[in-house]
User: Which sequence fits this backbone?
């Protein structure tokens, strides 16, 4: 029987792997987010997972709140003197009105109920709050390794990606983002990983989890055997690159502090 998970929770069952194998983001990404903030009192990393972005974000703010719908993910987040961890849905965060200066959504915006989340954004935003959301496109590697990873992602697992994942494939061009845009520079993630790191990472994909739920078989086992056949030294790292797709905007409020746009839903 498949474990019941909260809506939008695709990663509780792989929380250990998520904490171990998800890549960290480049420092200059957080430098950019901090540079467009009007104040640096309090940041909110929404959909924080096990804190891949939260701890780096905390370097730039007096206090950072990291929240995720998954208690298992939050349980694996590291302790930090300026980070407060919360288990909460993105659309209903236990945060005070007008209390947040910067809102960050790292690799998670496509999972949210956008209309309700943006109501929540407007509720918690202080005047002039910045919101920044990013995701990583599919990773690329060279040679036979890259081809094997590509086949797994787009052929074996092609129909097992949740429907919201289409926003990532469309490079966030079509995802709702109803804010005054801030121009953003280009970023990419780059690392050098061993065979074990690549295999651990692809086991954290939402489509891998769904495939296992349906078939009771781990599709990564066959790919791992294939990779071993042409990865001469499995402990020798190979380059892996993810294009990073970034949106940034300003949450508009009028002079009395109320929000522009549709009236907030009352809970």
Assistant:
């Amino acid at each position: 029987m498949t474990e019941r998970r909260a809506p939008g929770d695709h990663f509780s069952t792989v929380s250990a792997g998520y904490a171990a194998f998800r890549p960290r983001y480049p420092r200059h990404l957080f430098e950019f987010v901090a540079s467009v903030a009007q104040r640096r009192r309090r940041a909110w990393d929404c959909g924080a997972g096990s804190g891949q972005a939260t701890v780096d974000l905390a370097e730039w703010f007096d206090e950072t709140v990291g929240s995720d719908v998954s208690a298992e993910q939050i349980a694996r987040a590291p302790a930090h003197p300026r980070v407060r961890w919360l288990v909460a849905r993105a659309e209903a965060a236990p945060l005070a009105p007008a209390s947040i200066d910067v809102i960050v959504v790292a690799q998670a915006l496509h999972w949210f109920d956008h209309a309700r989340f943006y109501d929540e954004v407007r509720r918690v935003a202080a005047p002039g709050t910045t919101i920044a959301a990013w995701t990583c496109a599919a990773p690329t590697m060279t040679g036979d390794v890259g081809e094997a990873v590509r086949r797994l992602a787009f052929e074996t697992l092609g129909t097992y990606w949740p429907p919201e994942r289409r926003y990532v494939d469309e490079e966030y061009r079509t995802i709702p983002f109803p804010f005054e845009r801030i121009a953003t520079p280009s970023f990419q993630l780059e690392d050098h990983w061993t065979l074990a790191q690549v295999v651990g990472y692809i086991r954290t994909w939402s489509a891998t989890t769904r495939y296992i739920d349906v078939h009771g078989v781990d599709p990564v086992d066959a790919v791992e055997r294939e990779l071993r056949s042409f990865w001469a030294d499995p402990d020798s790292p190979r380059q892996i690159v993810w294009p990073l797709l970034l949106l940034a905007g300003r949450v508009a409020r009028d002079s009395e502090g109320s929000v522009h746009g549709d009236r907030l839903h009352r809970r």
User: Anything to note?
Assistant: The longest strand covers residues 238-250. The chain has a mean pLDDT of 88. Residues 134 and 245 are 5 Å apart (CA to CA).
